[in-house]
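The instructor's notes for this session suggest beginning with a concrete chain rather than abstract definitions. Hand out the sequence below and ask the class to guess, before any prediction is shown, which regions might be ordered.
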Amino acid sequence: MKKYIVFLVALVMSGGAWAAELPPTLDSGDTAWILVSTVLVLLMTIPGLALFYGGMVRKKNVLATMGHSVSAAAVVTVIWVVLGYTLAFGEGGLWVGDLSKILLNGITKDTLSGTIPEILFVIFQMTFAIITLAIISGSVADRIKFSAWIAFMALWVVLVYAPITHWVWAPTGWLFAKGALDFAGGTVVHINSGVAGLVLAYVIGNRIGYGRESMAPHNLVLSVIGASLIWVGWFGFNGGSALAANGSAAYAIVTTQVAAAAATLSWLFFERMLHGKASILGAASGAVAGLVVITPAAGFVDVKGALIMGLIGGAVCLWGTNGLKRMLKADDALDAFGLHAVGGIVGAILTAIFASEMIMGKKIELIPQLLTQIEGVVAVAIYSAVMTFIIAKVIDILIGLRVGNDDERMGLDLSQHGERIE
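After discussion, reveal the predicted structure:
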């Protein structure tokens, strides 16, 4: 008993230093939360994004558009466990991971990543890769070959997504080492996918009749349901990125909700000012804009910061999907660039401005952090753009990116899949 008391006294006097040296152990609460978060993030793509995108295209392309999200879940899953995860989170160097975890080699049910099983971390990160590819599909809706889309995904997740993930989130990545802040994927997911979508839209070309024929959404009910599922799923996206069931996760959920709500109101206000009416599609788009903007900052800012970021994000993304889109002259069919790249850039930069000492437990020097954030934005955008262009051109040369004119007029549901909605 005396030895036990002496041990406790020594532990208290040392400030817990002995305990700090102990290796991490499995935490059932953290594990349960990331299990739930994984389901929520996958829900964002299937059925969330599938419905959101599917409702915004013409009736003859709804099944094909939803199929892009479903196929993303299938293709990325296989590529991720074979090669993607090890390239993203293998030790490696500054630029990409090594092949030590190919086919999840060495990962058992007892291998830990922090306080959760590493195998759970694998699938949680997989869901991020899935939605990143699915977002890109919105830029080329109505005209991309299904076979070309499958080939693009397989190459892009290995050559673009995995290296950028390593830069930002792996401890050996160069942006991680520089101190770039990206809590849940502002650069990795949103800038990356939005820029890739814009480049792919340029390479594949405009839809037949773009700017001359009506291409109004065929069913906004589907889009609103999809956006609602995305909003709910985003709590796993941002809250789960704390990788623990703790105050950081709770705060990330609150800032996510506040930013989404603020951006919705901001979008609707400016849409009413500009066009005379506040649309329900605008409300759904504004919510997504706020969710994108807060993603890199969710675990770093307080509620005041989230509120301001949401208000700014709603207004800027409205411009991104209207004025900027016209300036770029690209047929980004479902506004992947205007919502995700623009929102991600705004969020990444504002993260440096609104990072809270109270939340992070340390003071952030504004100018150095701002420069680091801008460096990360520029590096991700350039790499994503260049590599996407190369991948798209190679696929176009080998099998062709785009369906023929007759197939496009017929609709991708029938021409690519032999199905249609009556």
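Then share the key points. Strands lie at 112-113, 116-117. Residues 1-20 have pLDDT under 50 and may be disordered.
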